[in-house]
Amino acid sequence: MTDSDFLTATRTFYDAIADDYAELFRGVIAASPLDRALLDGFAALVGPGGKVADLGCGPGRVTAYLASLGLSVFGLDVSESMLAVARRENPDLRFVQGSMLELGLADGALAGVVAWYSTIHTPVDRLPALFTEFRRVLAPGGHLLVAFQAGDEPRRHDRPFGHPVALDFLRRRPGQVAELLEAAGFTLLSRTVRAPADAYGESTPQAFLTARR
Fold it and tell me: How far apart are CA 2 and CA 34, in angstroms?
């Protein structure tokens, strides 16, 4: 599979479900104190006013939360329909269309990068290049937060909300991702795994890795 293949599949999937997805997960940050604690900790590491990219931002819920913590944050996503929701609901924030694999930012431009459940459609053989790109755009001492479903087997979502699309959600072992981050030049600071939340259909543990460039 080429980069354009999985990016096209991801964009098509989320373009179809953007409004339904945004409504389903509208209150997820408010209802998730453990997840908020991780975002709060990341914001404290970055520091007030730090420039942060929320990569794979979807409808912008994490982008908005990070902005509320005093970060200078923008969102990027491959799906224009997701970005339309994000811009509508967060008119004071900046959202841009693009690929995480080619960010178009200067070396060391950011103090922080968040990939909140957005690496889960990237094939494992593309992760080294992806994490290298994250490191490239971070300034020395900059921080990265990655969230993903823990596990081994992918979960295929077929016809979500009745839309005629399908996509695999790739699960990873936290140790595997930690090794890839370290190979890309990151220093791992924390590894958190929490139990699945039934309210949002989670069926596997959820993993969160914080690392420093």
Answer: 36
Q: What is the DSSP letter of 126?
A: G
Q: What stretches in the chain show pLDDT beneath 70?
A: 1-4, 199-200
Query: Which among 212, 211, 123 is positioned nearest to 172, based on CA atoms?
Result: 123
What's the confidence (pLDDT) of residue 155? Answer: 87
Which residues have C-beta within 8 Å of that of residue 8, sequence separation ≥ 6? none
Per-residue pLDDT tens digits for 116-129? 999 999 999 999 99
DSSP symbols for 156-207: EEESGGG-S-EEEE--B-HHHHHHHHHHTT-EEEEEEEE---GGGT--S-EE
Phi, psi torsion values for 135, nearest 5 degrees: -65, -40
